[in-house]
Structure formats: C-alpha cells, structure tokens
Amino acid sequence: MCNLYRLHAGTAAIAQLFDAVAGIEANRGDEVYPGTPGLVVADGVVRTMIWGFPLLLKGRGGQPLKPKAVTNARDDKLHTAFWKASFAARRCLIPVSAWAEAEGAAGRMTRTWYALPGDAPFAVAGLWRPTDAWGDAYAMVMVDACAQMAQVHDRMPVIVRAHDWPIWLGSDSDAAFGLCRTWNDALTVDRTRQRWSGTGAEQARLFD
Q: Which of 52, 62, 106, 149 could pair covalently with 71 via S-S, beta carbons 3.0-4.6 A apart?
C-alpha cells in the first residue's frame, strides 16, 4: 500500500511535464497524506483533489462518523462496485516524486522512500470521482510489489510510463487494465530514520 508520498513540483511544472493545462494553484504540502490535497492530471488539466475516496461510516447508535480515506485501489478489485465506475470513466495520472512505506518493528517503524532514478516526477495510475464529503477525490492503483520492495510490503503503485499515459487516460478500459502490472525496472531506495507515525501517515484505511 501507499499512505504517504511526496511531490517536489508545482502546478505549472507538472502541467508542462504532462502537456496539460495548469489549474488553480491550491495550498498543499510537498508530502501528501490521506485526506489531504494532492495534484492529479485529469481531462487534460492539472487539478487539486483530496487523496482518498471517502468511506462513510456510522457509529453504534447510527450517528455519522468522520469519513475514512480509502487511498488505494487494488488491481484485482477494479471491477468491483466500489471502484468500477471510476475505473471505467474517471482515470487520472498522479504525479509523484517518491512514495514511502513503513519499515521496521511495530512501534518503531521508519520511512523508506521509493522513486525512479533521476529528479523528475513520474506518473502513478489513479482513479477519481466527485464526492459529497470532500469534493473531487482520487486514489492510487496498486499491484504486486517488485523484488526490490517485496520484503517491506507486498503491494506497490502502478507506475505508468510516459508513452502509456494516453492509454491510461483513454476510453479503452481493457487497454488501461493491461497497464496494471508490476514495475520491474530499477528503483532508488532511501531508508531514513524518520519515524513513520505522528504525521498523519497512519490515517489511511485500505479497502481490501
């Protein structure tokens, strides 16, 4: 899974990289946590949306609780009811500089960052949808982890190569689904001493 990533680029730079129109610049941090704003490329525009589809829950007495951010869509769940409509009609690209996974013993986990070689942002496959709770929201598509990170987590984001961006954003769902595969080229790995907890990185909820 991925419940924390960072993007060291602004809206204008992302618009140039993805040959898209720059939308309205919104306040956001370089590090993106569940339920906070991030940039996506959708319908030819760089847009700000909330990371995570809101899962509406109720308490024991039936009272509404704060929605939980469902940040990750497993590839083997894309045709289920929760994701199906978004996968069919609302695919997007998520610009990412690196994503983090928690590594280490429980209670002492630290952040390990994964990225592509070089400094340029890359694209992760995403889905989006309008919501009553948070406005437009997005989620990452996940597949089996590659060998470089399999010992840390069994899932990783779908990285979309630049020449495949039109396929993921296009109307052919079968062709897009064919891009949901494990990345087998090199990754850079940065194991840090920064603690995983305490910064919002544990807020996400998976929809398995």
A: 52
DSSP H helix total and E strand total for the chain: 4, 16
From its phi and psi, is residue 44 left (phi > 0), alpha (psi between -120 and 50) or beta? left
DSSP string, 76-140: GGTTSTTTHHHHHH-EEEEEESEEEEEESSTTS-EEEEEE-SSSS-EEEEEEEEEETTTEEEEEE
- Delineate the domains of the chain, giving CATH numbers in brackets: 5-57+65-99+119-141+155-181 (3.90.1680.10)
pLDDT digits (tens, 9 = 90+) for 117-167: 998 999 999 999 999 999 999 999 999 999 999 889 999 999 999 999 999
pLDDT tier at 107, thresholds 50, 70, 90: confident
